[in-house]
Amino acid sequence: MEHVRIGDDTIEAVILPHVGARLHRLRVDGHDLLRTPGDPSDHARDPFSWGAYVMAPWCNRIEAGVVNVGSRRVALDANFPDGSAIHGQVYARPWVRADEGRFLIRAGGDGWPWEYEVGLHVAIVDRSVRFEQTLTNLASDPMPAGIGLHPWFRRPLLVAIRGDVVHTVNTSSEPQPEPVNGPFDLREMGEMAADLDATWTHLADVPVELRWPNLGIRAAMRISAPSRYVVAASPNHLDATAVEPQTHAPQGLRRTLNGEPGGLTMLDPGEVLPLTVEIVFV
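and the corresponding structure tokens:
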């Protein structure tokens, strides 16, 4: 399995092009910050629970099955125990290494009937790691589109998500978010309650801060995209927390079809949906 190393002993990223161009490792000042398996082949056996990976052409859950979108027929199989089609199509497929820190994949034309291209550029500058992601519609008609990044950060971890409203449930979310309250008010740094799985929006300029108290490492996450959402999940059975920047709200295809806010973006032929995530360590 090819390993692509970017950075140096201060900040090091290790990418596996043939398993979704995913981050196998993100190490800062000698400390692993991602949930990294001892055997890299575990990424292929269990692609959802390790490292960090790109989600496209949709993020998180949409309903499996058949649905018509314009003149196209979407027919997706379930790939998750809850019966949903989760995290898109490119999280574990082989990508092409283009040049230094750049990776590409073309997909679609199957159960997702539009063809598309996803690009990822990983760069480390000073005390930051930057993920530039793009999703391009290669089809001849508009395509619903979403893109995101799904890192699993090791615990113990303190988190601040500075969003004023939240979809408290990702599996069957309501059309409108609600003001943050109780365990969903994460605007101040603290531990996430166990087993949350929600989506925050109406985000501050710096929407996420992270702190590993046992390592003395802090970070700020900046997100640049036409629309910005942060999913966070704190499953009690894992030793990690997911903090996922993305471009749409939960159940994005349903939202697009029903005219609800936060749906997938409709990309015209040749149009590009960008998402840039920068994590700055202090």
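(Above: one complete record from the training split.) The mean pLDDT is 97.
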